[in-house]
Amino acid sequence: MVELRDPQPLRWIEEPSGQPITRCFQCYKCSSGCPVAGAMDILPHQIVRFVHLGLEEELLKCRAIWLCTACHTCKARCPNGIDISAINDTLKAAVLARGLRPALPAVADFHRQFLASVEKHGRVHELGMMVAYKLKTGNYLQDVPLGMRMLARGKFKLLPDPIRGQKEVRTLFHRARGEQR
Amino acid sequence: MKVSYYPGCSLQSTASEYGASTEAVLRALGITGKELPDWNCCGATSGHAIYRGLHQALAIRNLLIAEGEGLDLVVPCAACYNALRSTRQVLAGGDPEALRLKEETEHLLGRRYQGEVRVLHILEFLAGEEVGALLSARIRVPLAGLKLASYYGCLLTRPPRTVSFETNPEQPRLMDDLLSRLGASPVVWSHKTECCGASLSIPAPEIVCDLVGKIVLAARRAGADAIVTACPLCQTNLDGRQPEGEKIPVFFLTELVGVALGLNPHKWLRKHLVDARPLLKAHNLITASRA
C-alpha cells in the first residue's frame, strides 16, 4: 500500500513534459488502451494521479515508465490532451540524471547504447550497437538464433557509416545533456 | 518530378529491402529521389526517452538541410517521419523550447530555418493524386487475389493532430486504398494501429512477442494472406517475432508496389525471415525463373 504524505503535486514535471497534468479527471481511458498495461506496476492513469499526489519516489522506482513504448495511444484518446509517454520520458530522464537505478536496467541500457552509436557516428550502426548492448548487459545468449538468421540474410551492415557533420551531432548531444561546450 | 529522399539508418541495414524497393519504385515512376545530403539519425524512440529535446534537435538539423534542397522531403521510415513531422509542427506552433533549439541549431549549421519544407511519408506520397495517377497508369501485374492486412502501427497515426494524414486516425484507410489500387484485396481487421512494441524488442522481448502474437493472430482471423507495413521497425519485429508455428509473410508496402509495377522483387524478398515468395508464386505474381 502507498502511504499518502501531505500531498504536493510534482510541479517540476509539468514544464519539461509539456503536459497539462492537472486537467486529468481519472477517466481511465489511457489505461484501457495501453498495449503494455498488463505488464505495468502502476497504470498510466495512476502515473498521472501519483504526480498529483507528489509520490515522487514511487514514480522514479516504478517499472511502468520503462515499459512505455511511446505508442501515444493514451495521448490520442485522452479527453484532456495529456501525453503520458511524455511524462514517462521526463521521469526516465530524472532517474538517470539523479544517478538512481532504473527499475528495468536493460531498457535504460538499450536507449543509452542506441544513442551512444548515434552520438559517435551521426547515424546508428545497428550491429555495433547490439554488440555494445550485449557487452553492457551481459545478456549474451538472448536472441542469438534470431540475430544469426538476420546476419545470414544480409540484414546488418558490418561497418558504421559516419556522417561529415559528426561534430554538429555531438554538439546537439552535449547540449541535450546540459553540458557546456 | 524530383523530391528529396531521407532513407534513415534502418533502410541501409536491417530494412535495406525497404530502401532498395523504395528507390526502385521511384525510378520506375520516373521520379528522381535525391538523397538528403549528410542526413543524421532521427534518434527513434531512444531520441526522446532519456534526454529532453534531443529528438527535436536531431530533427531540426535534418529539416535545415532539407530546406536548403528546396524540394519536398519524402520519408519511408515511420520513425523518421514521425520525428520530422512532429518537430515541424512544434516549431510552427511557436513552442518556446523548440524555438530555442532551432536558434541553437541554426547557429551551428550557419543557416536559417523558414518552416517551408514539406515532409511526406512514402505512403501519402504514393497515394497522392499526381503520383497515384502515374502509378495506376503503370501497373503491369495487378495483385489479384492477395488478401492483405494493412498495418499502420503507431508512428504514422499518432499523435493524430501532428502526424496523421487520415480522416479518422483510429481507422486509417490510405494504405488499404493504395493496395486496392494495385489490385489486391485489403481485409477488414482489428489491429491496424495497435503497437508492435518495437522499441522494447531488444530489452524486453517477452512483452514484444505477446504484442506481435496478438497482431499476427488478428490478421489471420481476418483471413489475410500477409501483413503490409510502411515502417522498418514494425516489419523487422513482425517478421522476426511471430509465435511458434506461425509464418505469415510481412511485406513492405513498396515491395508490393514494385511487384505490381512488374519490377523484380527477388533481391528484396530474399531478406525476409518469413519467406514471402511462395505466396506470390501461388498467385502467379512472380515466377521462379526470375529468382
Low-confidence stretches of chain B are: none
CATH topology assignment of the largest domain in chain A: Fumarate Reductase Iron-sulfur Protein, Chain B, domain 2
Order of helices and strands of chain A: HHHHHHHHHHH
Radius of gyration based on Cα positions of chain B: 19 Å
Please tally the β strands of chain A and state the result: 0
List the strand order in the largest sheet of chain B.
2-1-3-4
Q: Give the CA-CA distance, first to last residue of chain A.
A: 46 Å
Order of helices and strands of chain B: EHEHHEHHEHHEHHEHEHEHHH
Query: What is the correct CATH architecture of the largest domain in chain A?
Result: Orthogonal Bundle
Helix content of chain B: 40-55%
Number of helices of chain B: 14
How many structural domains can be distinguished in the coordinates of chain A? 2
Keywords, please?
heterodimer; A: 181 residues; mainly alpha; Fumarate Reductase Iron-sulfur Protein, Chain B, domain 2; 2 domains; B: 291 residues; alpha/beta; Glutathione S-transferase Yfyf (Class Pi), Chain A, domain 2; Rossmann fold; four-stranded parallel β-sheet; 14 helices; globular
